[in-house]
Request: fold
Amino acid sequence: MKPLENQVAIVTGAGRGIGEAIAHQLALQGAKIAVLSRSESNSSKVALHLNQKIAGSAKAYAVDVADFEAVQKVGEQIIADFGRVDILVNNAGITRDNLLMRMSSEHWDEVLNANLKGAFNCVRAVIRPMIKARSGRIINISSVSGLMGLAGQTNYAASKAGLIGFSKSLSREVASRGITVNVVAPGFIETDMTSVLSEEVRHAAIAQIPLNRFGQPEDIATAVSFLAGPSASYITGQVLAIDGGMSM
Ligand SMILES: NC(=O)c1ccc[n+]([C@@H]2O[C@H](COP(=O)([O-])OP(=O)(O)OC[C@H]3O[C@@H](n4cnc5c(N)ncnc54)[C@H](O)[C@@H]3O)[C@@H](O)[C@H]2O)c1
Reply:
């Protein structure tokens, strides 16, 4: 029997990049996956791929995680479709980089709403059934930027550092109900998000990474899968940096 057999996992921002790799890894471990993305086409593509390549059962949902009401509705739909929810991975995230003196109020709000409020919205949608079941795994995807700060990312770093405080408080609230809450903080990972970086920025970033290279989405996915699995039942409120040593 696979470690996550019969479990249901919600992965946000799973239409591509790190989220897609997490969905894939959890499905390989036997979980049924609710693939959430902003766009129907991306989530459907990933769900179809999972159903064809891994004999799992995946379903696609389109939702903006920043929209509280819409997220509660999708949560109800997922529980109606699958009957339960065991794992929530809050992975959806955006950047709107700029120096603070040029940062618009809209870009501040957009990033905080997607990255931080989005996690709150998704937890609110699943926490009652998890408490009732007296078990659950919540894994929030932060960033090296939230640990050490990166110039040009005050909005993003604030949202990602906020996720760490959010996760630690939440882990204390729900530990007695058998629910663990942990954070994975990736460094520079090869995805669409980092494909926009100039060669100059890439070189400057690599110079700060002891392992001297960017990571792959699978580096994050395997750690998330470990934290979601039975071997991690005594780990809660922790932050696991997967960044080639950048933030140590
Ligand atoms: N790539 C990196 O180097 C890196 C480093 C540290 C942290 N992260 C974090 O990892 C996560 C995944 O990043 P990625 O590199 O795969 O990015 P990506 O841009 O390739 O994918 C992000 C996904 O999130 C979805 N998304 C964004 N806002 C959303 C919203 N409001 N509602 C629903 N879905 C939304 C997007 O549609 C997309 O599918 C993000 O939280 C990001 O901040 C990435």
About this structure: The radius of gyration is 17 Å. The beta strands are 8-11, 32-37, 58-62, 87-90, 136-141, 179-186, 239-242.
